[in-house]
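#lab-general

N.A. 3:47 PM
ok so I finally got the sequence cleaned up, no stray characters, all 322 residues accounted for. can someone with queue access submit it? mine expired

B.Y. 3:52 PM
send it over

N.A. 3:53 PM
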Amino acid sequence: MRAASRPSCDPIVSFSDQAPAPGSVPLPPRAVVMMIVSASFFGLMAIVIRIASKELHPFEIAFFRSFFGALVALPLLAKGGLRTLRTDRLGFYVVRCAIGTASMLASFWAITHLPLAQAIALSYSSPLFVTIGAVLFLGEVVRMRRWSAVVAGFIGVLVIVRPGTDGFTAASLVAVFSAAMTGIVTISIKFLSRSDPANTIVLLTTLLWVPLSLPAALMVWQWPQTDLWPWLVLTGALGTGGQYFWTHALRIADASTLAPFSYLQLLIVAALAWLLFGEDVDRYTALGAAIVIGTSLYIMRREAKVARQSDTQPMVVAEPPV
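B.Y. 4:20 PM
back already:
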């Protein structure tokens, strides 16, 4: 397990098989630009989800995000042909994508029922669950410093959620559930990455999301009004675009050095939520987010150091859970 954060929304994950060893070369400016573009796309997608939720249930928005995102991803077939879809682990893909779909549905629901900054801040707790899952499912050894970071990270989550106070809402637990599911999906990539290239993982995951997200959408289905279709198309385009730039940034630079730029998503969302929806960031969300992000960055740095010592490569999350 070598985890790096991000959204959002089950997330697609990939192995940066061409990234240089951490700290071996200066950080390429092109990778920084790609990561900033990716963070901007994911942040804008969260805003568009909130706008679309005024007329549609978040489960239906998640389906259209998957559908139009798959259409945007189809040009990957032009590069590699149908062989890009070949895999000996289709059943494993279905299971991990089902878990990822649950994460996406929960994330979209949280975005429509929580202050946007709070929903995004809680999504960044995913690396905490990855660390725990790696111990439980992969038998990895995590020593005291990383366990201390995990404990501190969950304290940050509690600061944001504020259980037992007037500021607590059950919707925040949905966002935490989404982050936990993202962690499980991240762990699963350790197995897929041993046999399948990044484009296969991205394309198959994107395509499988469509049928897997449809049943939940059908339970609340209503045909979108004409003026809503551009927002739905934009949701899919921003999501797939964010995945594309994230993945390619990680192919030319290490995740632990790029991660700070990915957290720009939270700043973008907070600023736009204030401008468009009048949402302020309360001090508990700001403090909790700082703790969660700080501990996640520490975990990623420690994982990068372990990767250098063991001559392995870190696992990375190619999309935040949104």
